[in-house]
């Protein structure tokens, strides 16, 4: 069964760091571009960033709101995608989802992991 | 920064038909925007419905259809069911600048 499971969320103080993981199963992570999407409480979906599959260079892209603070990476051998979040702000408080993407088709999503940035 | 605009809310009667639209501030939405549509119910993750304008996933009921309409992406629900009450989000791709941008979402009420 194809599955994505996010983990690593929690309560963190402003300015601190947190690393989220997206553990995949049922498919080869290296064949897909992996996205991170977030949803602040009561708000809509916001694309955070993606990392292209190795065949397309393995390079990341980010939303302007997180560029320079967040970094996406993958460990294809472990089937895990990561979202390293530095210099966290209160406005980064959200439920963070990962999704896989094959040719502009985000077809599988995890259930999300909650991040709260507060002092 | 590109803005993607959806109707904030729509109401439809059971058995009726409704069309949700998705517009881009950078111009007409085309097939090269690879429009995706998602359904989200309270407390649940987004559920993919449509990709690349008009392709249903294997789990997407046939009453959901995607298209391009008047320079916008569109999602049409025909024969609406009570369980279709949800938030719907479109997602557009841009080949310069930020690659993906979500619309603000449409809250669909079935009444």
Structure in words:
The complex is a heterodimer of chains A (119) and B (111). Chain A is an all-beta fold and 119 residues long. Chain A has no helices and eleven strands. The termini of chain A are far apart. The mean pLDDT of chain B is 97. Chain B has 111 residues and is mostly beta strands. Chain B is built from no helices and eleven strands. In chain B, the strands form two sheets. In chain B, strands 2, 4, 5, 6, 9, 10 and 11 form a seven-stranded mixed beta sheet that branches. In chain B, strands 1-3-8-7 form a four-stranded antiparallel beta sheet, with no helix packed on it. Classes of the chains: A mainly beta (119), B mainly beta (111). The A-B interface holds A 35, 37, 44-47, 50, 61, 63-64, 97, 103-112 and B 1, 34, 36, 38, 40, 45-48, 51-52, 55, 57, 87, 89, 91, 93, 98-105.
List the helices and strands and how they pair.
The complex is a heterodimer of chains A (119) and B (111).
Chain A: E1 3-7, E2 10-12, E3 18-25, E4 33-39, E5 45-51, E6 60-62, E7 70-75, E8 80-85, E9 94-101, E10 106-109, E11 113-117
Parallel strand pairs in A: 2-11
Antiparallel strand pairs in A: 1-3, 3-8, 4-5, 4-9, 5-6, 7-8, 9-10, 9-11
Chain B: E1 4-6, E2 9-12, E3 17-24, E4 36-40, E5 47-51, E6 55-56, E7 64-69, E8 72-78, E9 86-93, E10 100-102, E11 106-110
Parallel strand pairs in B: 2-11
Antiparallel strand pairs in B: 1-3, 3-8, 4-5, 4-9, 5-6, 7-8, 9-10, 9-11
């Amino acid at each position: 069964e194809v599955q994505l499971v996010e983990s690593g969320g929690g309560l963190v103080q402003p300015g601190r760091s947190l690393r989220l993981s997206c553990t995949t199963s049922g498919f080869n992570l290296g064949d897909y571009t992996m996205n991170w999407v977030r949803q602040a409480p009561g708000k809509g979906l916001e694309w955070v960033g993606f990392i292209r599959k190795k065949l397309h260079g393995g390079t990341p892209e980010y939303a302007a709101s997180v560029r320079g603070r967040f970094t996406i990476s993958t460990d294809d051998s472990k089937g895990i995608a990561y979202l390293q979040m530095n210099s966290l702000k209160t406005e980064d408080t959200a439920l963070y989802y990962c999704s896989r993407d094959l040719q502009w088709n985000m077809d599988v999503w995890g259930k999300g992991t909650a991040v709260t940035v507060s002092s | 920064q590109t803005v993607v605009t959806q109707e904030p809310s729509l109401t439809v009667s059971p058995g009726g038909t409704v069309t949700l639209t998705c517009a881009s501030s950078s111009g007409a939405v085309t097939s090269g925007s690879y429009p995706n549509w998602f359904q989200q119910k309270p407390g649940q993750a987004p559920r993919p419905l449509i990709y690349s304008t008009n392709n249903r996933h294997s789990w997407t009921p046939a009453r959901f259809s995607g298209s391009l309409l008047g320079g916008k992406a569109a999602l049409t629900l025909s024969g609406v069911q009570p369980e279709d009450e949800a938030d719907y989000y479109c997602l557009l791709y841009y080949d310069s600048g930020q690659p993906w941008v979500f619309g603000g979402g449409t809250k669909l009420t079935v009444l």
